[in-house]
Automatic annotation (TrEMBL):
GO cellular component terms listed in the entry, alphabetical order: mismatch repair complex
Keywords of the record: DNA damage, DNA repair
Gene Ontology annotations of biological process type: mismatch repair
Keyword DNA repair: yes
Source organism superkingdom: Bacteria
DNA mismatch repair protein S5 domain sequence ranges: 201-319
GO molecular function annotation: ATP binding; ATP hydrolysis activity; ATP-dependent DNA damage sensor activity; mismatched DNA binding
Function: This protein is involved in the repair of mismatches in DNA. It is required for dam-dependent methyl-directed DNA mismatch repair. May act as a 'molecular matchmaker', a protein that promotes the formation of a stable complex between two or more DNA-binding proteins in an ATP-dependent manner without itself being part of a final effector complex.
Name the UniProt record assigns to this protein: DNA mismatch repair protein MutL
Native source species: Proteiniborus ethanoligenes
Range within the parent protein: 10 to 332 of 623
């Protein structure tokens, strides 16, 4: 079993940033409103994620580290209307199999919590402990038992920058959650967690960025869109600041890029790209999210309808603002 977990870890867990992604997504799924992420040495030697979510009840703790055990799915039908980020039950067992991990967790129904230590997939200690409601996971020495993987890791700075990228994307996608990111003992990021897109984008991307953007908004029965699109003068030489979130999930989707870039084509020079942050909330039946194991790609069942709605939302923003 521990071998299977190590193999699975090869697919899901490539580097510190992939660990961070899985842990933060678990915290989001646990309905946290405050998530702290801490790394040292690019995450190679130390990773901590602390949340104030629902926690794991004592009798399920060991289960959480079993492969394909998830609390988020009950039957095959659930796969169709998935609203949580995780559902495969692979992340925790994979991460635990390739690191030295400590988990501290408490639910609201318990006056105390549980602390469990796992070393390369083996539980080495478990005891009761007083702690706040929520979950903390501390990871040391990632890939200590998989030397080939360790060798594949880049410099501390490069790994830290990958981690940072993931944290920023998840923080921007979840303006209702307060994110704090600490890197080598320094606080790098602190989002307000107040649902407000502009103040969240301010804390992540700066004042100039926010003041160069227009709001967009559309509200229909099956689909709601809001976000920020840039003034034509604020376009970039690359696509690095194009963010799309569908039902809270950061995604890459060529349809959306194309729809938005087409609208800007008459307004901006060639080889310049619009900057945007788009949040789409859509009935889960109208999308297919299960196309890729890392779940960053999705398909829309009605591309034409999406095009119409998104184009109109942006056009009316252009119309209402001086460009
Ligand atoms: P998945 O997210 O696909 O369900 P994981 O391996 O990531 O699988 O997590 C296994 C289970 O552990 C989850 O289904 C959840 O019940 C529990 N869990 C993991 N992280 C947390 C957390 N931060 N707060 C509460 N429960 C958690
Ligand atoms: Mg998960």
């Amino acid at each position: 079993n521990s071998t299977i977990n190590k193999i699975a870890a090869g697919e899901v867990i490539e580097r510190p940033a992939s660990v961070i992604k899985e842990l933060i997504e678990n915290s989001i799924d646990a309905l946290s409103s405050f998530i702290t992420i801490e790394i040292k040495d690019g995450g190679k030697n130390y990773i901590r994620v602390t949340d104030n979510g629902i926690g794991i009840s004592p009798k399920y703790i060991e289960l959480a580290f079993l492969r394909h055990s998830t609390s988020k799915i009950n039957g095959v039908d659930d796969l169709q209307s998935l609203s949580t980020l995780g559902f495969r039950g692979e992340a925790l067992p994979s991460i635990a199999s390739v690191s030295q991990l400590e988990l501290i967790t408490r639910t609201k129904d318990n006056i105390g919590g549980v602390r469990i230590s796992i070393n390369g997939g083996q539980i080495i200690e478990k005891n009761e402990i007083g702690c706040p409601i929520g979950t903390t996971i501390i990871l040391k020495n990632l890939f200590f038992n998989v030397p080939v993987r360790q060798k594949f890791l880049k410099s501390d700075a490069a790994e830290a920058s990958n981690v940072s990228d993931i944290v920023y994307k998840l923080a921007l996608g979840n303006p209702g959650i307060k994110f704090k990111f600490i890197k080598d003992n320094k606080v790098i990021l602190n989002t307000p967690g107040n649902e407000d897109i502009k103040s969240t984008a301010y804390s992540l991307l700066g004042k100039e960025f926010v003041s160069s953007m227009f709001d967009i908004e559309y509200s229909g029965d099956d689909i709601k869109i809001n976000g920020l699109v840039c003034k034509p003068s604020f376009t970039r030489g690359n696509r690095n600041h194009q963010y799309t979130y569908v039902n809270g999930r950061y995604i890459k989707n060529e349809d959306i890029t194309e729809i938005i870039e087409d609208l800007y084509k008459t307004l901006i020079p060639i080889n310049r790209f619009p900057v945007y942050i788009i949040y789409i909330n859509i009935s889960p039946e109208l999308i297919d999210v299960n196309v890729h194991p890392t779940k960053t790609e999705i398909r829309f069942s009605n591309k034409e309808a999406l095009k119409k709605i998104l184009s109109n939302a942006i056009k009316s923003t252009f119309f209402n603002n001086t460009l």
